[in-house]
Design brief:
With 57 residues, the protein is mainly beta. The chain has one domain. 0% of the residues lie in helices and 44% in strands. The protein contains no helices and 4 strands. A 4-stranded antiparallel β-sheet has the order 2-1-3-4, with no helix packed on it. A hairpin with a 5-residue loop joins strand 1 and strand 2. The two termini are 22 Å apart.
């Protein structure tokens, strides 16, 4: 799982590798980031999921 800013720069890698099937939780430490919209991307098998998140401080 990776996090990008709106201009496409990677700002964090939360996890690389594989996990077993099930529910998992990751933490995005955004203390050094500014408020705004970020994009996160998850790749799971053939699925490639991209979503937006709003960081409000």
């Amino acid at each position: 799982m990776k996090v990008y800013n709106l201009i496409g720069q990677e700002v964090a890698t939360l996890f690389e590798g594989q996990k077993s099937a099930g529910v998992h939780r990751l933490t995005f430490d955004a203390r050094s980031r500014t408020s705004g919209v970020y994009i996160y991307r998850v790749q799971a098998g053939k699925a490639d999921i991209v979503r937006r998140m709003m960081l409000v401080k």
